[in-house]
């Protein structure tokens, strides 16, 4: 069987085919656009159904973790440390200010001569006294009477007694003899003695009990309930002929106090001697025992030092031994 004959395309057939294809293209596009509209489902409007609230159980609170517990403690500790630090800062600042004030006052005291300050106060008091006296006398009043208005009788008598004693002490200040000098030294030492009354009472009661136990002392009770010690043989109370005080044995504290007093007196004596020598310009060895001997040694030195210089140097070197 023979194959079919080939159709020849002519120009007319080609133009008709192109026109048919162009007419079919818009129809295909319209069909494609209608297909999605047909596929869309219709939504039916219906009344909304009221939703009933569903009760749910409350969720349990989360347990605090270890980190959450430690945070408040750390904050409290930090605040406590900060408060203590501020308190220490304030105390340090206050101490610094106090030390500065004390140092300033101390420097002022050291820069001021106490003797000059005392003399200035004394001159001021004397000037005020004289001015008040002059004003009172100018007004025709009694100065002593007016001054006594500010004092009571007891205070005035005590003041007069004190001034009298002070004047007598001033008159007796100069050296007269060694007996008076020893008496003044003894009174000065008595002013520095602080008696132990409690210890004295204990020793007194012990002595009374011992005498009562030995039979030399009777304890009698009066009608008022007061106890009186009666010395039967006259051996308890001391007299001018008694020697019982020699049996007293001081304790170690009293002995140490006596040694300290003697050492203090010796230090004062050496200090005054050194000051006296410094005023005279003598810092070398002391070769005299009193002022008269000092003058005599100065005369000897003035005349014989040039001859005895070699001998004295040899003695100092030790070559003459």
UniProtKB/TrEMBL annotation:
Transmembrane segments: none annotated. InterPro entries: mRNA_splic_SYF2. Residues 1-11 have a biased composition (Basic residues). One of its GO terms (biological process) is mRNA splicing, via spliceosome. Residues 29-45, 66-83, 94-104 have a biased composition (Basic and acidic residues). Pfam families: SYF2. Residues 105-116 have a biased composition (Polar residues). It comes from the Eukaryota. Residues 14-25 have a biased composition (Low complexity). Keywords: mRNA processing, mRNA splicing, Nucleus, Spliceosome. It is found in: Nucleus. Residues 1-116, 159-178 are annotated as: Disordered. One of its GO terms (cellular component) is Prp19 complex. Involved in pre-mRNA splicing. May be part of a spliceosome complex. Belongs to the SYF2 family. This is Pre-mRNA-splicing factor SYF2. It comes from Trichoderma lentiforme.
């Amino acid at each position: 069987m023979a194959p079919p004959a080939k159709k020849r395309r002519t120009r007319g057939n080609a133009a008709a085919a192109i026109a048919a294809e162009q007419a079919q293209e818009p129809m295909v596009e319209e069909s494609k656009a209608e297909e999605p509209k047909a596929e869309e489902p219709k939504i039916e409007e219906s009344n909304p159904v009221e939703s009933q609230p569903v009760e749910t159980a409350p969720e349990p609170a989360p347990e605090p973790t270890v980190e959450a517990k430690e945070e408040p403690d750390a904050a409290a500790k930090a605040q406590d440390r900060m408060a203590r630090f501020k308190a220490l800062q304030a105390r340090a600042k206050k101490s610094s200010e106090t030390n500065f004030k004390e140092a300033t006052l101390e420097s002022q005291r050291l820069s001021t001569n106490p003797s000059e300050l005392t003399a200035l106060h004394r001159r001021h008091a004397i000037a005020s006294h004289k001015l008040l006296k002059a004003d009172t006398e100018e007004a025709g009043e009694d100065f002593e009477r007016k001054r006594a208005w500010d004092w009571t009788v007891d205070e005035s008598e005590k003041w007069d007694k004190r001034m009298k004693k002070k004047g007598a002490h001033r008159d007796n200040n100069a050296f007269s003899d060694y007996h008076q000098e020893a008496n003044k030294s003894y009174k000065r030492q008595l002013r520095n003695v602080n008696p132990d009354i409690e210890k004295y009472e204990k020793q007194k009661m012990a002595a009374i009990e011992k005498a009562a136990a030995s039979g030399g002392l009777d304890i009698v009770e009066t009608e008022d309930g007061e106890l009186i010690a009666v010395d039967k043989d006259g051996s308890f109370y001391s007299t001018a002929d008694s020697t019982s005080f020699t049996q007293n044995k001081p304790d170690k504290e009293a002995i140490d106090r006596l040694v300290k007093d003697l050492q203090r007196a010796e230090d004062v004596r050496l200090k005054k001697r050194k000051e006296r020598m410094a005023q005279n310009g003598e810092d070398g060895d002391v070769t005299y025992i009193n002022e008269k001997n000092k003058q005599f040694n100065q005369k000897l030195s003035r005349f014989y030092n040039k001859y005895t210089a070699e001998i004295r140097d040899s003695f100092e070197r030790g070559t003459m031994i």
